[in-house]
Amino acid sequence: MNTETKSLPLTELPDIARKLRRDIVTMLAAAGSGHPGGSLSAVEILTTLYFKVMHHDPTNPTWPDRDRFILSKGHAAPVLYSTLAECGYFPTADLATLRKLNSKLQGHTDHILPGVEMSAGSLGQGLSYGIGCSLAARFDKKSYRTYVLMGDGECDEGQVWEAAMAGPHFKLDNLVAIVDKNGLQIDGFTKDIMNSEPMAEKWRAFCSHVIEVDGHDFPQLTEAFEHAATVKRQPTAIIARTIKGKGVSFMENKVEWHGKAPNAAQLEQALKELE
Ligand SMILES: Cc1ncc(C[n+]2csc(CCOP(=O)(O)OP(=O)(O)O)c2C)c(N)n1
Prior knowledge:
Number of helices: 10
Bound molecules: thiamine diphosphate
Structural class: alpha/beta
Shape: globular
Order of helices and strands: HHHEHHEHEHHEHEH
Mean pLDDT: 97
């Protein structure tokens, strides 16, 4: 039986996002390591996709007609794990096993976990994988769509731009590349490490249809995904302006929260802010 998820009203999404953020900081604190900043910046993007836009079935993770979501920035695994658990792909209690030996919830995504399409962690590969999914849909005459989430730091990788050329070449209008443009990467601000601006113009020059949004705004994200579904004969690139560490004041826009877990006191403070 197909138990495909329902598209929720916009009004229900903020509560889900807050729950995901609580799960993210809690599981990172329990693990004692991991990546909060780039997980928190992508919460609204995943919430919109999984609870409003995508056709998927948590009881049947390999449903051939499911829309595909590829987390290319695999270090942001906690945002995907919390989302999948909230959808019902596996019990929320499993989130406490993040980064533990023998857990399916590894520090970087592993496709042994139900709902994870691609093992990731080595940056730059997800859009190429997504192109494979999009081409497969075309060959199999299926209508599923593929969404690939990348970081703006990740866009330093040359392979991203090879894929950015291939998508328009194959006229993959069933493909959406999303850049979580939080302006930070592992060592500092993206503009200082490797300036990728003007990001939107680059994707446009590579012949994708480009939409720029506030990546924390549910109506803007929803409209962008809905509009992308109407674009013909070219992929869409959604450039989502976000804040790294969004939702936790002391993590917001701070490079040191790229890859560090909160301690007990910091977790308490974070959870208070996310009540
Ligand atoms: C090929 C590769 N090079 C380097 C790294 C190390 N690394 C992990 S996260 C990261 C920064 C990524 O920045 P961004 O894509 O902007 O991620 P976000 O800020 O959204 O977390 C780097 C360089 C990696 N995982 N893979």
